[in-house]
Structures are given as structure tokens and as C-alpha cells.
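>> received
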Amino acid sequence: MIRLYVNVDHVATLRQARKTYEPDPLDAAIAAERVGAHGITVHLREDRRHIQDHDLERIRNAIKGPLNLEMAAVDEMVGIAQKLRPYQVSLVPEKREEITTEGGLNVLSQEKHLNEVRLKMVDAGILFSLFVDPDFAQIDSAFRVGARSIEINTGPYSECTNIEERERALQKIVEGCRHARDQGLRVFAGHGLKVDNVEAIAAIPEIEELNIGHHLVSRSILIGMEQAVQDVQNAIERGVARRHPSSLRTY
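>> returned
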């Protein structure tokens, strides 16, 4: 079964709209775990638009499973990660003017810096991952940097509005995942995934972990977090069932 990490950032987005104490992203994290989410993901942005510093330690200490901290590769965030010591750090690109992450990390342009960040994370006992587009050159660069894993950006696939475009985007992801596995990287995926498009991604045999957030939070407003997570897990299971038997793994 693919591991599902639930991103609770946008629970905090709703809370920050009123600068109050509810809804609490920790409550959402606990609800997601209650129905089988493997782990929780949070993105601490430099502008603190949703998750706040005080959320990090509360969530890390209260959840039963691992915490995946998404962050920019900047000194402030590196220091926070070293102090917090989450299970995993996932480096993502970050621009103040963007609404959400718009693309994968340009690893090629900053290999030396990213390797320095990796060493600091490894020294702190933190797993190190990079969020990248399904581009062979970026994947090769992630390998050279020493990443343990990569998270393939599924945003362009998720945003496709016609079948032909979606199939081309999906094929690019399939090829990127295969190339990453051939390089010895563990392969995760995420961005824009939802109950009606995740099945094809879950069917890709190299993928062992998915990060899903906005869709789950959006659906949870109407049907509750537990039901939203269960619906996505069911879609993931349908995708895994489409894999060739020889590709199935136990994690």
C-alpha cells in the first residue's frame, strides 16, 4: 500500500483568515491519522501565511506517525528543522507572490548549496527529500546532491483539462519515476492530487508515497476529514490494484 501523507496547511489558512485559534491543523492531523494516514505534512513558509512556528512542535509531539516538513532551502528554515528534528524535510521552491508552489525545485542551479543543506539534515538525523519536476536532468541532479528521495511534481498533470494533455503529462511522470528509481532514488509524488485523478498516479509502480493536502481540506469542509481521507485512500487502493503483480511491494 502506498503511504499517504496528509498536508494540513490549508486548515491553518482558514484559521489565519481570522487570526484566531480555529480550525486547528493539529485536530485535522489527528483525524487523518485516525483513519489510517501514514504521516502528516506541513509547509512552514517564510511569510508564515498558514502554518505558524507554534504549530510545528505541537503537531510533531502529538501525532503518532512521522512529520514531513516542507520548506525553502534558506538558513532560517534549516535552523528550525535542526531544532525541531522532523522525520523528513522536503525542500521546495518558494516565491512570496505565488498562491501555492508553482513548480519543482531547480536543483541544477544550486547543487552546492543543496548538498550543504543535506549534510546539515543528515547530521540532525533527518531524512532529506527534494520536490522536483519529472525532468531527467533535475532528477540526475538530485541524485548528485545526495537526496535520499524525490517527490515528483504532479501539478501539471493535475491541471490538465483534456484527456490527451493529461495522458502526455502522465507519461512524463511515469518516465520520470522510472528514471529516478533507476538512479536508486526513492520516489514520492504530490501536488494537486484529488480523488478523481490520483488513481492513475497510484498505479505507477515506482511510487511509494503520496502527499495530498488542499483537496482533502476542501472536501473536509463538506464531509469531514476522516471521510475525505478514506475516499482518497480508496482511490489510491484502486490505483495500486492496477499495478502489475511483479511490481507490488510491501513497505
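>> The domain at 3-242 is CATH 3.20.20.70 (TIM Barrel).
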